[in-house]
């Protein structure tokens, strides 16, 4: 990347690169700074077969500031908040570099997070405790969540804004939130610890 490239040009190039990869990318209102990316669980893991919609927001200073990443549909993992979907991942929260791009996030960082959780620095205490106490029960719970919340039809049902369609009573089908960690914030990053 040439040093003279502006952050906005780099943002557009990174989003285009992600769109040209194997990931389904849906821009929110045609905004290259706000999108949903379809993410598949890594093979040979309890997450295999799962599909998640991940909300990505790029700050104005991207790539010098990290993207905000949040899982829209539920996932059971020590370092992902089950309700809000926010992600505790050192490379996004603390050690982000302009050398990284969105393809790195989806091809390397998120798969590594799912394969190698850090239960000593949890956002989901139940998942962390189960992972440490009974790894086989943890795997069963992950698989249960994949079957319940992360099937391809579940992702299809999530509309472009990341919300489940509403039923006749005006209520969402599930209690899903689209919250996520603003991973560039110093206060939050300082509380995250290292994930290695």
Report on the structure:
There is one protein chain. The protein has one domain (7-161): Ubiquitin Conjugating Enzyme. β1 (25-28) and β2 form a beta hairpin. Helices cover 35% and strands 13% of the residues. The chain is an alpha+beta fold and 196 residues long. The chain has a 4-stranded antiparallel sheet with strand order 1-2-3-4.
Radius of gyration: 16 Å
Q: Main beta sheet: strand number and arrangement?
A: 4 strands, antiparallel
Number of strands: 4
Shape: globular
Assign the structural class, choosing from mainly alpha, mainly beta, alpha/beta, alpha+beta, or little secondary structure. alpha+beta
The fourth-level CATH homologous superfamily is Ubiquitin Conjugating Enzyme
Total domain units: 1
Share of helical residues: 25-40%
Enumerate the spans where pLDDT stays under 50 for 5 or more consecutive residues. 166-196
End-to-end Cα distance, whole Å, is 28 Å
- CATH names the topology as Ubiquitin Conjugating Enzyme
Region (Disordered): 154-196
Active site: 88 (glycyl thioester intermediate)
Biased composition (Acidic residues): 166-196
Protein name: UBC core domain-containing protein
């Amino acid at each position: 990347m040439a040093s003279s490239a502006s952050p906005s040009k780099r943002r557009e190039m990174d989003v285009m690169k992600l769109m040209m990869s194997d990931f389904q990318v849906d821009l929110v209102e045609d905004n290259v700074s706000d999108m949903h990316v379809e993410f598949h669980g890594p093979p040979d893991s309890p997450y295999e077969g799962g599909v998640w919609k991940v909300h990505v927001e790029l700050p104005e200073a991207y790539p010098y500031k990290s993207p905000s990443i949040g899982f829209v549909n539920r996932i059971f993992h020590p370092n992902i908040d089950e309700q809000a979907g926010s992600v505790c991942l050192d490379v996004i929260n603390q050690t982000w570099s302009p050398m990284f791009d969105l393809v790195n996030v989806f091809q390397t960082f998120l798969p590594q997070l799912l394969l190698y959780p850090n239960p000593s620095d949890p956002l989901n205490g139940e998942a962390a405790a189960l992972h440490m106490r009974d790894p086989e029960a943890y795997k069963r719970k992950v698989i249960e969540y994949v079957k319940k919340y992360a099937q391809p039809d579940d992702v299809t049902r999530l509309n472009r804004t990341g919300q489940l369609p509403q039923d006749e009573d005006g209520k969402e089908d599930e209690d899903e939130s689209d919250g996520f960690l603003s991973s560039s914030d110093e206060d939050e990053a300082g509380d995250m610890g290292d994930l290695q």
